[in-house]
């Protein structure tokens, strides 16, 4: 106790002793007796004098003989009190940065200011409705310093020093794109064993793991993401585990320090230094959010051999441990001075205790209603909020369930646009889900799951597709900016164009939701990220705000059918009249202009174009195409479309073809598999492809063997293989795989060389077919991405079989040997058209604008190579039209509209050896077929007379 405390205590004793005699006198009724009063006064005086003397003595004694100092607080108690202060802080305070914020915490000294002049700004304000035209933006100090006009900006330039002025001439500017679900850096590309840090397989529940610890700064995708406008990503552990670990928010740009820690935004822990300058460890930042990844359903059940009941128990058991730890910590903090043990800090479960306290954003991989319901119950049982349900394919069926989750607001819903049906959980996914959920008042987010299936570079394309299927433009743009920023607790500094916010800004070459929209420049912390960007001048119509698609009926059907609507055509006719037709892409090599024309169809055949009054009967149905067009039916190739109904459900697929090289030591005795024997019909992916203008597809056996087998060309509209027109060609091209999955490339080429040289019995299937291939009678399609393998194939053709007709499928490195391919008349089916270097064999791909002047299809075409496009996933088949339009939009100097459509029609027929005689299929499109707003209104299937109306 200190001296002032001791003096106060003594004085208190004196006062109590003085009070007792007075009280005795009063209680005896003698207060007014003179003698007694005098005696009382004398006693009081003596006591006062004595007390004063005692006080002087104590002061002297304290000076001469000081009392011993109190014992110091034990270090473990002091450390524990610091922890108590942190947990008592509560959830991070939501304080928006304002225009008074002049320098960012991520500011790089020496960075010059950037003055963006005469822009069209989508700010994110007013629920995404605000658009400012002719505005200027000053980026300085790593923040958006000023939004206004030239006069507003100029007054600040004196203090801004070096300023780069950029005239935008009305170009669109948005906040940087924010990806709420990425594995960038943890599942790095190109994929190598040494890069695979996405999942730990040591247990289903591991909240102690951190994505930060596996973040690879050498990931090739950083520059690609920036080229798509990505500025910020929440990097999550993978979804193999029920609780996979803690997630972290990163900005894509490289830093001076070039470390994972330096790329974080608002790290939940910061370094502290001792007074001597040495590092003193880490302390919690109570006003920074933490993040954690959970996963429901099939993933953890499959990986750990569990059921959904096991997964739900894993969650409850884990959170029981988290709650137990929280309660221990709370009890310790209630009386720290009495503790004999350190503050209870369990590294395994402390993150879950922090979840229950409300300090951690929980993001959950969760698809089906059963899993969503289970997790909502867990959130209420343990009283923690859910920041977002991810993938969330069935959330549009149960929006009220999400609103019943614990917390101050419903979880965000992070979705794909079209990626669905790849496993049972995703079977009922709907392209209309974003619009349905937004209408229900939920925070809709579009995300990538980078690196697969969606490259974060094309996250804006996910938003554009959601917009096409009914989400209005403000919600669609918000789904990749303001909404994910809010869901990750970063909307106080990201997701808006606001003064004082981080200078993360994207300048676009067109309205961001148009097909092919590409950044002209991406700024992160005010620093331009793309060196010498290649900018394509887009037409005036590409700058206009687009309208969302009218799919009210389809959205209702999706909900009413509980996610399983009837996708078959509802109406078929023999004859039909199309009015307001702008163009025809049916024959020849150029589009036929037909502005305002009619097109009359009888018995499935176009019989008249133009005025056509004499060919129209009054009872014929009339379809207004609103300036649309008729095209040839699109073709899909490259995916298991038709060989698998649900990719991850083996019972829905034909299975893997037998490896002919394992039949016997002599590989020449092998059998040959024909895909026509394994094709199935009436799958959702086929029906959706048909509704989107893909009238036929080419499938080849799934195999890792050198000889995959013979392909089949079939109609996507057929119900079974024996239906008339179902199988269009059951003896198609020979497909060969030259990847080194299970055998060296050199071995595979040696096998192929021997076969082509005729070292096989002529009466074997393999021998007969290979002789036809060698003579050029049967085309061969070779699946590979690597330029070196293609070069080996070129040498093989020159030396062994110069007449061989080769097409390459995949071929992402083909641009390196484009001239040799053109010389040997080897065609390329680029698959996927907007590829990325996922594998070592494709690491030298050509990314296209804004990183290179041309995309891969355009470069090959410009070098004289016949080019087509394919798809790597069955669910992507409906995107075929969009892929062709994307290529045209970014390479107008190479492709006109007809040649762009030929990438999925005529050119594909040539490269696959398909007869043009059966090409009687066509598609009628409402609106511009090259616009995101184009849609199918009628389809004429191959070898059928009737027309299906949609």
UniProtKB/TrEMBL annotation:
<feature type="domain" description="Amidohydrolase-related">
    <location>
        <begin position="433"/>
        <end position="522"/>
    </location>
</feature>
<dbReference type="InterPro" id="IPR006680">
    <property type="entry name" value="Amidohydro-rel"/>
</dbReference>
<feature type="transmembrane region" description="Helical">
    <location>
        <begin position="46"/>
        <end position="63"/>
    </location>
</feature>
<dbReference type="InterPro" id="IPR011059">
    <property type="entry name" value="Metal-dep_hydrolase_composite"/>
</dbReference>
<dbReference type="GO" id="GO:0005737">
    <property type="term" value="C:cytoplasm"/>
</dbReference>
<feature type="compositionally biased region" description="Basic and acidic residues">
    <location>
        <begin position="550"/>
        <end position="570"/>
    </location>
</feature>
<dbReference type="InterPro" id="IPR032466">
    <property type="entry name" value="Metal_Hydrolase"/>
</dbReference>
<dbReference type="InterPro" id="IPR050138">
    <property type="entry name" value="DHOase/Allantoinase_Hydrolase"/>
</dbReference>
<protein>
    <recommendedName>
        <fullName>Amidohydrolase-related domain-containing protein</fullName>
    </recommendedName>
</protein>
<dbReference type="GO" id="GO:0006145">
    <property type="term" value="P:purine nucleobase catabolic process"/>
</dbReference>
<dbReference type="Pfam" id="PF01979">
    <property type="entry name" value="Amidohydro_1"/>
</dbReference>
<keyword id="KW-0472">Membrane</keyword>
<keyword id="KW-1133">Transmembrane helix</keyword>
<keyword id="KW-0812">Transmembrane</keyword>
<feature type="region of interest" description="Disordered">
    <location>
        <begin position="543"/>
        <end position="570"/>
    </location>
</feature>
<dbReference type="GO" id="GO:0004038">
    <property type="term" value="F:allantoinase activity"/>
</dbReference>
């Amino acid at each position: 106790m200190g001296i002032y405390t001791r003096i106060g205590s003594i004085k208190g004793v004196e006062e109590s002793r003085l009070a007792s005699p007075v009280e005795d006198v009063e209680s005896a009724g003698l207060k007014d007796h003179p003698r007694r009063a005098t005696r009382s006064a004398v006693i009081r005086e003596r006591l006062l004098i004595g007390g004063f003397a005692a006080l002087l003595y104590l002061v002297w004694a304290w000076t001469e003989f000081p009392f011993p100092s109190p014992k110091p607080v034990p270090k473990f108690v002091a450390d524990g009190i610091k922890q108590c202060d942190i947990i008592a802080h509560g959830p991070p305070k939501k304080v928006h940065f304002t225009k008074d914020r002049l320098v960012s915490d991520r500011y790089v000294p020496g960075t010059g200011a950037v003055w963006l002049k005469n822009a069209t700004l989508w700010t994110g304000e007013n629920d995404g409705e605000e658009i400012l035209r002719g505005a200027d933006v000053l980026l300085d100090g790593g923040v958006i310093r000023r939004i206004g006009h030239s006069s507003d900006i100029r007054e600040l330039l004196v203090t801004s020093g070096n300023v780069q002025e950029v005239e935008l001439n009305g170009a669109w500017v948005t906040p940087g794109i924010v990806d709420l679900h990425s594995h960038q850096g943890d599942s790095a590309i190109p994929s190598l064993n040494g890069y695979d840090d996405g999942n730990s397989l040591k247990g289903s529940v591991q909240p102690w793991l951190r994505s930060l610890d596996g973040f690879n700064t050498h990931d090739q995708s950083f520059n690609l993401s920036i080229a798509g406008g990505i500025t910020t990503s929440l990097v999550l552990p993978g979804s193999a585990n029920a609780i996979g670990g803690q997630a972290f928010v990163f900005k894509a740009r490289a830093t001076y320090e070039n470390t994972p820690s330096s790329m974080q935004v608002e790290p939940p822990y910061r370094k502290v230094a001792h007074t001597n300058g040495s590092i003193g460890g880490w302390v919690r930042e109570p006003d920074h959010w933490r993040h954690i990844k959970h996963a429901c359903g099939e993933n953890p059940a499959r990986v750990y051999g569990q059921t959904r009941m096991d997964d739900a128990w894993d969650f409850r058991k884990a959170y029981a441990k988290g709650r137990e730890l929280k309660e221990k910590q709370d009890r310790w903090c209630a009386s720290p001075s009495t503790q004999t043990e350190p503050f209870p800090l369990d590294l395994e479960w402390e993150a879950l205790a922090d979840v229950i306290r409300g300090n951690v954003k929980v993001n959950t991989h969760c698809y089906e209603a059963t899993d969503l319901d289970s997790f909502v119950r867990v959130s209420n049982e343990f009283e923690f909020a859910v920041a977002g349900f991810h993938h969330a394919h069935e959330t549009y069926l149960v929006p009220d369930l999400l609103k019943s989750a614990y917390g101050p607001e419903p979880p965000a819903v992070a979705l794909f646009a079209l990626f669905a049906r790849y496993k049972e959980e995703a079977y009922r996914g709907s392209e209309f889900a974003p619009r349905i959920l937004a209408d229900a008042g939920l925070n809709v987010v579009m995300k990538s799951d980078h690196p697969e299936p969606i490259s974060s570079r094309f996250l804006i394309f996910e938003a554009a597709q959601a917009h096409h299927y009914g989400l209005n433009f403000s919600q669609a743009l918000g789904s990749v900016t303001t909404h994910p920023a809010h869901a990750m607790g970063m909307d106080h500094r990201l997701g808006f164009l606001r003064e004082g916010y981080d200078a993360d800004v994207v300048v676009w070459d067109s309205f961001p939701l148009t097909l092919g929209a590409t950044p002209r420049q991406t700024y992160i912390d005010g620093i331009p990220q793309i060196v010498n960007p290649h900018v394509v001048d887009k037409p005036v119509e590409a700058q206009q705000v687009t309208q969302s698609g009218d799919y009210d009926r389809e959205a209702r059907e999706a909900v009413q059918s509980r996610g399983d609507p009837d996708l078959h055509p509802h109406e078929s006719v023999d004859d039909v009249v199309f009015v307001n037709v702008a163009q025809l892409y049916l024959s020849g090599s150029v589009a036929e202009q037909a502005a305002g024309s009619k097109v009359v169809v009888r018995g499935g055949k176009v019989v008249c174009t133009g005025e056509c009054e004499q060919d129209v009967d009054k009872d014929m149905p009339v379809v207004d195409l609103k300036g649309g067009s008729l095209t040839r039916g699109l073709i899909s190739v490259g995916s298991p479309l038709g060989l698998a109904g649900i990719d991850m459900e083996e019972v829905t697929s034909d299975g893997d073809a037998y490896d002919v090289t394992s039949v016997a030591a002599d590989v020449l005795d092998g059998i040959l598999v024909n895909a026509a024997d394994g094709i199935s019909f009436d799958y959702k992916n086929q029906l959706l492809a048909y509704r989107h203008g893909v009238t036929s597809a080419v499938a080849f056996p799934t195999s890792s063997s050198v000889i995959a087998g013979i392909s089949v060309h079939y109609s996507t509209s057929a119900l079974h293989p024996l239906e008339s027109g179902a199988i269009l060609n059951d003896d198609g091209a020979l497909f060969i795989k030259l990847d080194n999955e299970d055998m060296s490339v050199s071995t595979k080429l040696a096998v192929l060389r021997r076969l082509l040289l005729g070292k096989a019995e002529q009466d074997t299937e393999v021998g007969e077919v290979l002789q036809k291939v060698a003579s050029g009678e049967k085309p061969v399609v070779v699946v590979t991405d690597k330029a070196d393998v293609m070069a080996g194939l070129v040498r093989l053709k020159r030396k062994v079989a110069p007449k061989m007709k080769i097409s390459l499928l995949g071929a992402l490195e083909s641009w390196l040997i484009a001239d040799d391919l053109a010389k040997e008349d080897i065609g390329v089916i680029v698959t996927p058209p907007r590829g990325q270097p996922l594998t070592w064999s494709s690491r030298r791909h050509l990314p296209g604008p804004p990183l290179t002047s041309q995309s891969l299809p355009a470069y090959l075409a410009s070098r004289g190579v016949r080019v087509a496009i394919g798809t790597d996933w069955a669910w992507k088949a409906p995107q075929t039209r969009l892929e062709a339009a994307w290529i045209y939009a970014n390479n107008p100097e190479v492709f006109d509209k007809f040649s762009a459509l030929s990438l999925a029609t005529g050119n594909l027929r040539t490269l696959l050896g398909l007869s043009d005689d059966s090409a009687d299929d066509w598609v009628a499109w409402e609106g511009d077929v090259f616009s995101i707003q184009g849609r199918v209104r009628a389809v004429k299937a191959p070898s059928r007379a009737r027309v299906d109306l949609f």
